[in-house]
Amino acid sequence: MTGLAEFEKNSIEQAITEIFYRYGYGIPAQDLLKKIGVVSENAGFGAFLIGGFPRDIIIHILKSNPETSDKFKSSKVFESKQIASLALAMTKQRKFKSSKVFESNSRFLDLDIAVRGSAEKLAFLIKEKKNLKFKLNYLKAHKKFGTASLEFLVNGMPLKIDLASLRTEVYKKPGMLPEVNTAKTGLKDDISRRDFTINTVAFSINRKDFLKIKDYSSGIRDILNKKISVLHDLSFIDDPTRMFRAVRFEKRLGFRIGGKTLKLIKTALDKNILDNISGKRITAELYLLLKEKKPEIYFERLDKLNILSSVYGKLKFGKKNKIVFKKISVYFNEPDKAGKIRRVCKDIDINMFYMAEIFYGLSNSELSEAVKRLNMGQKIEKMLEAVYSDIKKINNLKANNLFNLSVKNTGIYDKLNKIDAKSVLFYLFKDCGRNEPDLNFRKIIVRYLNKIILIKPYLSGHDVKSMGICEGPLCGKILNEIKLLKIEGRLKSKKDELEYIKKNYIKN
Questions:
Q1: Is residue 170, in this structure, part of any structural domain at all?
Q2: Ranges of the chain with pLDDT below 70
Q3: Residues 11 and 112 in one domain
Q4: Which pTM was predicted?
Q5: pLDDT, tens digit, for every residue of 299-347?
Q6: How many C-alpha atoms does 283 have within 13 Å on its Cβ side?
Q7: Alpha helix segments (H runs only) across 271-377
Q8: Contact 498, 479 (CB under 8 A)
Q9: Looking at the structure, do residues 112 and 147 belong to the same domain, yes or no?
Q10: Which of 84, 176, 290, 346 has the least C-beta neighbours within 10 A?
Q11: Is residue 60 part of a domain?
């Protein structure tokens, strides 16, 4: 497969059908696209699928082709937990019309459509179309930006479609948001302002040339070559956040950033271009990377390209950071483990652990500077300071040999209960050493998090009060005693707890 000829309408239509079935939308989603194209054409507009969806459809075709499947094995697009027989499903469309043929992943599709004309007007024309036969959950238009967002219910599944008028963009200053002009703009002009060539391939959804490829910037060639390339030399100067996106696409798709594009990243970093954008925008990009399946490989790449240190000079990401990231990811991807800690910490957030690791080792003043640069706020700073302070307390417990494997559960609880459970968990993610005392201490931490901390009385405060004990402090004291006795194993049932209260606190 060497070019456009291999991506004729039939192969694209079949691939899109497969993907729509995989996500549970089925043929109705394709019908929706056709109807949007008709509405657009009747209004004198033009409409084109563009961005990530066409790119991933092309990669899907390449992964399915025996000649190129090995080359694109590592490209993660349209992943699902289970793929049934697509051919069988498509030959029995009527039978499966009201059911989910495939078990999809947890995400829903989000499509981008570029509009030659007014995206806002097209959105309202779609809404007013009586015979569209698709439920519209919501519509939000942004006249200032020439965009609109719609969410449809297709085969019982939400399908989001973002419309954007074709536009040109002018960056008055490096790093600033651009000025947008949607007047008399063609698809070629719109494509020239986008981030990477692989995201510029478009599929027409107009009636006369439905699913015809529009490729004005060698996007398909770069997809075939698995190459991330910017469209012009000032791309990273105009929008420095594209550096983070370059890494995101490189690692997620199994591509490589092209040599010239790497040089342009270095040139932009040498000019301290990241200083021109707000901390909030950088943090938003970092959080997107943390959502990926293996965030450690993304941050490792940021470090290697000196992007991380350009955000804040003291930030590094080495082998130890990578190990901790893997531990965090594995832990929160195991429902049983993550579910246990959430029973104790309702507000637990995986990103907190990632950020705690990224900033670990900074002094208080450096932490304050880094948090300020990323505009994360004092709440995050205080939380991280508390975690690092707790880690020191845990290390002191370990250094003073206060625990051994024979220590009673109540002794473990007495010491560790004074420390926030999130901090104890973060300690578990850290490299605690490999000698016998270190490993034994780790076993105690695991015992605390997996068992001891989860032990609670069967009885509630309401139950205690219903037994005639109305004094608040006494009620709390009783419940704490019961908890400690349960941890010791002396109370094993609700009946035992009731008997304990009757024997010790209720006069005959």
A1: yes
A2: 1-7, 79-107, 169-178, 180-183, 402, 405, 508
A3: yes
A4: 0.86
A5: 999 999 999 999 999 999 999 999 999 999 999 988 887 788 888 887 8
A6: 15
A7: 279-290, 295-304, 307-311, 319-332, 335-344, 350-359, 364-373
A8: no
A9: yes
A10: 346
A11: yes
